[in-house]
C-alpha cells in the first residue's frame, strides 16, 4: 500500500469544492525571510533592531499613521515593542514626539533629518525586494496577486475578529 498525500477539502459557497495544499501557506516565510535579509543589512549598518527599522519605514511610507497607537494597530505589533523602539529611536535623535496642544494624550511622531540616510537605504532595500520577488510577473499578474492577497488577508482578519468576539462572549 502506498501513502497518498491528501489535501483538506474546503467547501466554498456550498458548491465549489477546493483541495488546498496547506504547505503552500508556509511559503510566505520565504518571502518574509528575504525581506528581512535585505532590511537586516540596513539594520546592521545603522545599529537598529528590525522593529526600529520597521517603525522608521512605516512612518516614512505612512505619514498619516503617526501615533504609537496607529503603529500598533496598523502593523499589528505589541504596544511594549513599539514603545521600547520609539524610546530608542527618540534617544538616537531619529524621531520626535510632538504633543497636541488640544489633546494632551495625542502625541504625533515625526521623522527627523537624522533618519534620512536610514530611510533612503530602506527605500533602496524595499525597491530591490519588490524588483526581485516580482521579476517575471506581468503588470496584470502583479495586480492580480495584490488583489488576491488583500482578499485573503481581509478574510483572515474578519475571522480573527469573529473568533475574538466569540471568545469574549464565553
SSE order and pairing:
Blueprint: E1 9-12, E2 16-19, H1 28-46, H2 50-61, H3 68-75, H4 79-91, E3 95-99, E4 107-111, H5 116-133, H6 139-169
Antiparallel strand pairs: 1-2, 3-4
Descriptive terms for the model:
11% strand; two-stranded antiparallel ribbon; 6 helices; 170 residues
What do these coordinates show?
This protein is globular. The model has no long low-confidence stretch (mean pLDDT 88). Helix 1 packs antiparallel against helix 5 (116-133), helix 2 packs across helix 5 and helix 3 (68-75) crosses helix 4 (79-91). A hairpin with a 3-residue loop joins strand 1 and strand 2 (16-19). It has a two-stranded antiparallel ribbon. Strands 3-4 form a two-stranded antiparallel ribbon. The chain is built from six helices and four strands. It is mainly α and 170 residues long. The longest helix has 31 residues, at 139-169.
